[in-house]
Amino acid sequence: MLYYLRNIKSTVQQTADAIAAALKIEVEIADADLIRVAGTGKYKSQCGCPMDDGFVYRHVMKTGVPVIIDNPGFNELCQPCPCRGNCMEYAEVAIPIRIEDQIIGVIGLVSFDEEQTQRLMDNKQSLLLFLEKMADLLVGKATEIQQNHDRDILTSQLVTVLNLLHDGILLVNDQQKVTHYNTLAAKLLDIDAQEEQALYHLLDNKNLWLAVERGETFSGNIQGKRVATQLYCDVVPIKNDGNIEGAVITLRDLQQIKKLVKAATVNDIETHFSQIVGNSKKMKDLKAMALHVAPSKATLLIQGESGTGKELLARAIHQSSKRKGHAFIAINCGAIPENLLESELFGYEEGSFTGAKRGGKLGKFELAHNGTLFLDEIGDMPLHLQVKILRVLQERRVERIGSTRSIPVDVRVIAATHRDLDNMVITGEFREDLYYRLNVIPLTIPPLRERLEDVPILTQFYLDYYSVVTDRSVSGITSETIEILSRYTWPGNVRELGNVIEYCVTMVAGGMITSDTLPKRIKTEHKPEMIDSSLNLKVLERETIMKALTLVDVNGHKEDAAKLLGISRASLYRKIKEYEIGENRTFS
C-alpha cells in the first residue's frame, strides 16, 4: 500500500500547529518525496515546495532513526549543504513517520534562538516520545484514509461486477430490509431508488423467507409484487456464528430463461427442404406434401424405417412453419428410461420425488412453447404416458409432476415412429384415441430400397459433405462403384449410405473410390433369383436404360447415357417416353 501524507494535508497541518503551540518552536513535516506538507512560522508559506536542502531529513528517511543536531552547519550530515558554516538554525530534531516497514514522512523541529535550543536539549527523551505520539496520530489518520480509499475501490469494483451480471441481485438484512441491489434487480422489480425497500413490498416472500429463517436455501418460481413478470429465484441465507443475518437473492426472468433455451435449440440446426436429397417421384411427392402442410397447426405423424431421416423432415417442416423463430425440441421416447421420460416431458416441482432438483425443472412441452415438439419413436411410449400426451393435445395445458396447477402451452407436436402403429392399436400396445389424434396428417418416408434411383445423387451429396467434415477430399468415384451402391438394398437406409461414404472418404483420402474401397457386405449381398418376367425384351430394355441413366445421374446428361447404350440421343428420348421413365426421374 502507498500511504500519502498529502492525502491528509489538513490533519498534518493541524498536527504541526499543535506541536508548535505546545513546544513553542517551529515545525515542518515532509512526505516521503521530501515535499513540505505542513509548516509553521516561516515554513508555512513554503508548503507544497520540495525541500532541496533537506539533507538531514533524507538521512532519517533512509535509516529510519531519529536525529538530534545541536550544531547545524557543522554536523557531518550538513556537509552537502551550501549554507554549511553559515546556518541560520540553532538546533534541529527529526523523527520518521513510520507505518510498519514503510516510512511515509518526517517531523522536524527547528530552533532559531538560544532559548528554544535549550528547551530542546533539556527535554530530549520526553520530546522524542511526544513526537512519536504525534507521528502515530498521523499514521492512524493516513491508514484510515487509505483503508477507506481501498474499501471504496473494492466497493466500486463489486458494484460494477454485480451490475454486469445477467441475474438480478438483492441483499437483505434479518429484518427483510433491502440493503443493496444491482441495476437488473431494480429493473426486474421496479425498485424506486428514492424509497427504502422491504422485501415483502417487492416479492411474494412467504415461502422464501421461511426457508431463510430455517437457515436453508430456496429455489423456485416467484411472483413480483410490482410487476407481472414470473421470476426464477435462488436464495442463500447469510449466517454469522449460527445466527441468520440476512440473505442473498438472485433473480432471473423466466421468459429470458426460455429465450436462452430457444436460442440454443433454434439456431444450432436449421434444416430446409433443399437439404432433403432425392429426385425420385416418391421423394418429390413427400416433400411437396410436407411443404404444403408445414404452415398449418396440424399435428403430424411421420412414419418410416430407422435411418430414413424422420427428424430431418420434422426440422424442415418446423423451419418452413410460422413457428420457425421459436424452439424445436426433440426427444427420443425410446431412448429415455420409462421412469425419467415423464419428468422430461412434463417437468416437475421441487421435492416432488426423491432426487428431484432444487427448484424443480421445466419439461419439454414448456420449453417448446410457441414452437415445435418432436416426439421421436412415439411407438415406444408407455401406455400411461400416452394418456397424458393425449390430454395435452386436447387441452393445450401441461401439469408438472407434483403440481396441482396446469400451465397453458402452445406447441405443435410432430410424432415419428418406425413401428406399425396400426397393428399396435389392434394388439392394444398403442392407444387408438392417441393414434387418431397424432395421425391427422400422415407422412411416410420411403425406404431407400424403394427409391434406388436416388442413390447416385445421395452418394454425391455425402461425398461433398464428408470431404468437408473430415478434411479429406477424394478425386471421384467410379461408375462401377455407383452401380454396386445402386443395387444394394440398404437395410439401414440413408443413414447406412452416409456411413459407407464416410468410410470410403476416410480410406481413400485424395484418391478415387472404387469397388475395392467398399465394405465387404455391400459387395457380397445376396442377389435375388431372376424371375421369368426379366426375360421379357421390353423389360430388359427398360431396365438397361434405367441403369444407364442411373450411372450418369450424378454429373452426366442424356447424351452420356445414349453413348453408353450405343444409340442416338433422339432414340433415347423416344424410348424414355415409350417406357414412361420420365415419370419417375428428372434429367437434364
TrEMBL record:
Domain called Sigma-54 factor interaction: residue spans: 276-506
Presence of keyword Transcription: yes
UniProt keyword annotations, A-Z: ATP-binding, DNA-binding, Nucleotide-binding, Transcription, Transcription regulation
InterPro entries (alphabetical): AAA+_ATPase, AAA_lid_NorR, GAF-like_dom_sf, Homeodomain-like_sf, HTH_Fis, P-loop_NTPase, Sigma_54_int, Sigma_54_int_dom_ATP-bd_1
Residue ranges the record marks as coiled coil: none
Record protein name field: Sigma 54-interacting transcriptional regulator
Native source species: Desulfosporosinus nitroreducens
